[in-house]
Design brief:
The structure is a homodimer.
Chain A: H1 4-11, H2 20-30, E1 36-37, H3 38-47, H4 54-66, E2 70-73, E3 81-84, E4 92-96, E5 102-107, H5 108-120, E6 124-135, H6 137-141, H7 152-181, H8 185-215, E7 226-227, H9 229-244, H10 249-273, H11 278-314
Parallel strand pairs in A: 4-6, 5-7
Antiparallel strand pairs in A: 1-3, 2-3, 4-5
Helix pairs in contact in A: 3-4, 7-8, 7-9, 7-10, 7-11, 8-11, 9-10, 10-11
The first copy, chain A, binds a DNA duplex through helix 4.
DNA sequence: CTAGGTGCAAATAATTTGCAGAGGC
DNA sequence: GCCTCTGCAAATTATTTGCACCTAG
């Protein structure tokens, strides 16, 4: 249904003809995880017997880049490397100069700082590259750390879930607290309902996380791929703090709306920008979830306002009682 | 006293011999501002008549890289470029794919996020590269923006001064406010004194800034080189906020100490990491300034504590009066 | 005099291209 | 049959190197 083969098929440029050799090169390439040089690929092909000319390898690599199946990367070694673009989120590189392995990561914090720089210059970005050249932990300490050669796709899904779970948890804290603070009975119920939903959803996410771990027991201990520190985790945390400072019912709803909107925007923005993958789906589903919560809160906010107005009409002197401090 | 020639002299590798040709190549290279390819340099040499072989250019470029006079950069064009390392702070690149010009910037915010990523991986950094490939404003809109071909050194000095001035201003706001809030007479005096110092120093910095602008009237309108948003500007701002929340005398001093320490550490850290230059000096002098303020505040804090203790001995019942809310 | 430094031409190394034949549609 | 794909060998591009000669210390 959504195999590499289908993916390649879907991206085959118009007018291009089928060829067993090319298919074989593409398949061989997509079966690898790392960043291959043209020569690496030649070696792989030769090992699998097939006798394919170097020129064809080069031509096919270019063909894959044009079809967005592969991406050319340059680590400054005087030759190009290629990494798969299929189900592979965009990322930055840590490059070990000792063992020549490379590690991928993505930081939304860095990306947004970079956005600011770029914007201030009126620059239009086509591609941003970050490369950290140095020595990896294994080469430096000799300690045989765990095998880092996992697929980035899985790491990405893991970290997407982690971010979602962290957000969900702080959301739960927020609603639990808000439900305690709010005076208005209906408002309280809305917050309780949301707290409940967060709990349910949290369980769902946790289950998904556990399933992912089951596929690869070492996954949990692999180093982080996503660095989304500033963005996702802090959103509800600041809301909780604001609640603690003491707020009226309307304010509590407004804070909730702001948090959900921030959360939604964040997950939507990143979800949209990723390649199709489990991680992308997690981001977009979560964005949706947050959107629904936000809508619910907005509706409740409107209803509360309406009740305040009508109450004010009935008992003008005590109109503001529901939002007393 | 500190000319490029002296600089080159100081870095001449042991055992290397003088040579008119090499000197000429080095001088020609250092007279340029941009990112030259070996061929660019050959063209420049040829234009100035001298007949020097390509091989010598390559050998001399390598010699300059070894001597840390030049730095090799790779923009993925299939050939190397070289930029001067003399009085040139480390930086990242925006690269226009249309006009092939490149722009430099530095962001402490991005650098510290990168530090976190690197640390979490146990990685040892040798060199970090950030390249944003895209289209520059001029190529995109056709509008002939101001000439961007200024020396980065001057931009760096300008921005270092801007950061220092911004910090100084928020420091002034902090001390002015603190002087108003504090009860203890001696503490008040210290804060007033510091506010006064900030004012004087602010005037000095402003004068230096004006002098710099006088050297190049367009400098003020050139795009930013340093992006130090999070770091420098926010330090005292948070202190001012804390003051507003209401604090006792000791707390006010402690906040001041924290701000000055943060400020000192920041300017020291970056000042130390830069190449010798006006910008570096600004950073280090400012770091020193902040250190002195910090020491003053620490001394005052100790003195205040001592007075509180002795007061407590004399009038045990009212001992805590100087720090009443 | 001796270790560099320089020029020239040849060597490398990664990649591209021209051209003739093979093969998919 | 036409147009694309492939192989091979030659070309290209940036850079390096061997070797004979030159020059500073």
């Amino acid at each position: 249904m959504d195999s590499p083969a289908d993916f390649v098929e879907s991206r085959r440029p118009a007018g291009s003809k089928r060829s067993g050799k090319r298919d074989f090169i593409v398949d061989t390439f997509l079966a690898q995880t790392g960043h291959l040089t043209a020569d690496d690929l030649v070696a792989l092909i030769r090992k699998a017997d097939s006798r394919i000319s170097r020129a064809t390898i080069y031509r096919t690599l270019q063909w894959m880049v044009d079809a967005k199946i592969a991406q050319k990367v340059d680590f400054g070694e005087g030759r190009s490397r290629y990494e798969r673009a299929y189900r592979h989120p965009r990322h930055f590189h840590l490059i070990c100069e000792a063992c020549h392995r490379s590690f991928e990561f993505l930081s939304s914090d860095i990306e947004s700082m970079l956005d600011e720089v770029v914007e201030s210059r009126g620059f239009e970005v086509h591609k941003a590259t970050i490369q950290v050249h140095g020595t990896c932990e294994r080469c430096r300490t000799g300690s045989s750390t765990r095998d880092d050669e996992g697929s980035t796709e899985r790491l990405f899904a893991r970290d997407a879930l982690r971010v979602a779970i962290a957000t969900e948890k702080s959301g739960l804290a927020f609603y639990t607290r808000a439900a305690r603070i709010v005076r208005d009975a209906r408002g309280k119920q809305v917050f309780l309902k949301l707290a409940d939903e967060e709990k349910t959803h949290l369980a769902t996410l946790q289950k998904r996380y556990d399933e992912l771990l089951a596929e690869d027991p070492q996954l949990d201990s692999r180093p982080a791929f996503l660095f989304f520190k500033g963005a996702a985790n802090g959103i509800f945390a600041s809301g909780v703090e604001e609640l603690a400072a003491g707020v009226d019912d309307r304010k509590a709803l407004l804070i909730g709306i702001r948090c959900e909107r921030g959360s939604h925007k964040f997950f939507k923005k990143y979800g949209d920008r990723f390649e199709d993958s489990e991680g992308k789906r997690i981001f977009l589903e979560f964005a949706d979830e947050e959107k629904q919560h936000m809508d619910l809160l907005v509706a409740e906010f409107k209803a509360l306002n309406a009740r305040i107005v009508s109450a004010r009409k009935r008992r003008p002197s005590q109109a503001r009682s529901t939002q007393a401090r």
